[in-house]
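Progress narrative, work stream C.
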Amino acid sequence: MQPAITVNQIARAPNGPAMLTKGHFVVEMEARCVQVRTTTVKTPLGRSMWLLLCPACHRRCRNLHATEELKLLCAKCAHLRHPDQRTPGSKRGLILRRAQQLRRLSQRLTRSGLGRTVRRRLRRRKRKLLEQLTTALEQRQTRMGAHAQALLASLAVCRPGPTNAPLSASQ
């Protein structure tokens, strides 16, 4: 959902700076007037920054969002979330853990001096991790779309060759 009002939009308006300085202004939304309060805060560099106050919780924010009931609310009060935040935490953590494990396994496989059985076991583990990661990303793709598609495409580069290829003498 795009913000209905942002501080930058107000500041760029012809009488925007005057509205911000006054401490409040009125927004007309479909024959309904909503009063929005403003405040300033000092930044770490000593400058002033304008912020809007959420009419519901009085939290300072840069954007206010219009709800279906024609109320202006901050993102928290409007219960808005980024698509990444909609993925359950355990599932998101699983994907990150599998990717890290895959990276470490790939690094171990590039080392010299590993025995034949160790290499075979590591390759099997890498193949299993790739399958788990691909499955998790495909499930996520149905929820997220294009971002997951890009991750799957980058994984295709990591896929191992044929699983029953003979080991060479150098391995």
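Work stream C, second folded protein:
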Amino acid sequence: MPYKLASYWLGRTPIGHTLKTHSQQVVAIHPMPSDQIKHQLDAAIRRSPLLARPGFLIRRLHQIHCGLFLDETQGHDVTPVQYSLLTTLSMLGETDQITLAHEIGLERTSVAEVIARLEARGLVLRKQSNQDRRVKLVRLSRKGVYLLKKLEDKVQRAHERTIEMIPEDQRELFVLQLIRLVEANNDVGSAPFKLAVPKERHTESGVRAGKAERAEP
């Protein structure tokens, strides 16, 4: 049950066209002139110098998203990290904890702690591998599958609310810029995040084509 990505929750109104706001007023969206950008940035920095720091803004936005996530999923006692782990298990099926850590970009010890909490709630099942008794395999339980289905729309709303103040026609670009930052710096930090990498191949006509393959951790 992977996240429903761009086409599901990102707007597609072209720049210069019109869209409806929450108040149903139709407004025109145009590229913002550079002098206007600078004016608004300077005004924001005067409110707080921290607003000039991308790292602070990313951390603060993450805090906001977690609050929205908990608001949308209240009563289910699930955190964003737990939900990422559960959705990844739903895609991979039974897998070992190290692979799971790479798939969600989390340290192995943290993954082990999250799995223990989920196991105590009956949302995942663990067992020793028949090939290597040192390896623990994890999979979703029926209860975990049911919870994912129940939370899917709620979590989607949390993601939508996180970026809803960005003009609709700019949301895909915003997400793309975040992806670029993550992919460009993926080797930094203590927890690697496994990404698909393009592999060149030749078609029957001899034209090169890209094919995504999983990167080695």
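The two ends are 23 Å apart (CA to CA). No further action is required on this item.
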